[in-house]
Amino acid sequence: MKFAFLIHNMYGVGGTNRAVLNLATALVGRGHGVEIVSVFRRTDEPMFAIDDRIALVPLLDTRPRRPDRADPRLREPSLLVPKSEEFHTQYSRLTDERMIDYLRSTAADVIVGTRPGINMVVARHGPDHAVRVAQEHMTQDLIDDALKEEIRLSYHRIDLAFTVTEADAAAFRSGNPVPHTRVVALPNSVPQPTVPPADGTNRIVVSAGRLDPIKRYDRLIAAFARVAGDHPGWKLRIYGDGPQRPALVAQVRELGMSDQVQLMGRREDMSTEWVKGSIAAVSSERESFGMTIVEAMRLGLPVISTDCPVGPREIIQHGVDGLLVPMDDLDAYASALRTLMHDDDLRARLAQQALVNAARFDPDTLADSFARQCDAVLVERGPAPGRSSRVARSGKGPRTGRSVLARGGDLVREPDLVRLLGDPVLRGIAGSDLARRASIGALVRLSRIRQARATSARLQKAIRRRAAAPAAGPKVDCQVLPDHGLSLSIAAPGLAAGAHLLLRDRDSGHKVRVPLEARDDGARQVAVLPADELPEGRWNAYLQPLTGARLRLCPDRIDTRVLAGGHRPADDPAGGYAVRSHLPYRTADGFLAVRSWVRAEHAEVRRIALSGERVSIEAVWCGSGIPEQAVLHRRGHHECAVSVPVVRTRGGHLRIDVAVDELAAHRLGRYEDWDLWLRQAGTDRQVRLGLLVDDVVDKKLVYNYPEIYLVDDPGLDLVEEDPAPLLRVRPYYTRDSELSIVVVDRP
Fold first, then answer.
1. What are 148-190's pLDDT values in tens digits?
2. Known SUPFAM superfamilies for this protein (predicted)?
3. Per-domain boundaries in the chain
4. Angle at the Cα of 673 (from 668 to 677), degrees rounded to 5?
């Protein structure tokens, strides 16, 4: 069979896109023909990698300087997608025509709509020869009454309606009864991960999703804060971006949890992030399904989830592969966290069962079920008359849109326009459109501008960065090994013998070459870089063929779980070095780079606590002797040094207490940075404090420490200022992951 998925914007990100792509990839792998029809194309390349066997067909190209952007029909409101549809304002007269033209020309056996507005178009204008399918990725409780009424009126030609849960299927049958439409529950699929599952050694709770109030991350942070004091080695990591980020940052700072709660930002591939954890956490008020739950389970994590109305309860078996917590019960959520954080054996048992139980969501299994039910409709229906003419015409692809008017859901072609304007109803619609076209277009543009401004600036930057990333360059998987060395697997089929991996230091130009060994019948080339072979620096990674120019490597997956656990540097350093840490990462332009630290002596920061009077730093010393003094050096032309004593804790760590008023008393400018060093007694040798054995590349974005506000003026009367300065002090990590403190008196 040939399947066509009609989707809003396959060039963007989102759960629907992932679910459709997983199902489409499984179908094409089973020998079916598949194309994904994206109503909109807004970037050069899709955000998700798409199998080459799947045809991606955009209907409307709204990239800069494309003809569709200047088409006047783009500024006329859609007459097919109802106003009750969430994305109504993004649709137009032009999208109406393009969708109709595609449906009239397609030879697909099965046409699948993927959101209510598109499903209505498929229902009304899908060809008779095809199975017309409506996928409902949104839970029925979130569909308003007006849209449900539109569904009842429009879905009479839908053959199959798929919901992602049994609860939603039941709600659909009772809330939107549509004669002759079969409603079936088909969960979203999650493919077998390509990275090994989590081993449960890292003390990390992982959560992922859009930072939206409905996800209730504030409740998750509050629950974690209740148990974090009894489990100081544990961290909570929240991946994602969205409008709630500033509020969550403020909550973390107010709770004094900046070291234990980390907002990690959005990740295109979460598989290498899930495996860094030992527990997955979901705190949503509502979940239409819960793909993140299945993703975490498929990577060996037990999941603690709120028992929201649909989704989690159909995935998690309480006490078997995870824990379900009553809604709005903060004490119960904190208790569930405490239980799994405390009981290693229970956590391991649930993790193992999660791996087994999540296999039922494999795309191949669900694709077979999906295809069987579609085929059954075709068999029941029998051969459709006139289908051969459609097939013969389909090679032309979607045709250029034509001017149309809509009445009762039917489109009227341009040649009939003049005649039909004799109809007073149609004449009134056309007259209204012509009279108000300019104002309607202005309102549509204004609504789109407002929506764009509401989108997270960080997400927009990520999208632009991904869209601008070069497509050329060999793909590479990189993994940090237990000894902090690197293993790199490069996709380079047909590469001639004698090629090698080349690492080049950005500053010095120094080069390190590593031989490549062919694997998988020559499809991949593997290089293993021992930890002691890469000096400190920032390294760009290349594939250097025997002949020809070197090629920058583009990372596919980067597995840094070894660094995420905060493993202590070797107590018995090899070669005289206390710390060797190599952190691979993706650069802003999409290439692989490695940041390496090699230190004979080092102070690894473990914890930073702030009070109204001091910054307290706890660190692990790596090297000979024990420092007895910390020194803060002011950066810039006005050099100054402030000495602070070092105290040994009961656990053998070092503690440095920096009095903020002393730094403020030495200020000469309105913005001053102070770098922290340790000095051994009787020597002039100084060692920097930092957080080097860690998987976070840009720590400024993740370790968000609060500011200490100095209420009382320290007594430095250089110049009388109006308004008075707002003096504050804050610790932070530099670009090189070393610890500094900034003193600011800007208003």
1. 888 888 888 999 999 999 988 888 888 777 778 899 999 999 9
2. UDP-Glycosyltransferase/glycogen phosphorylase
3. 2-189+367-415, 204-358, 475-599, 604-744
4. 120
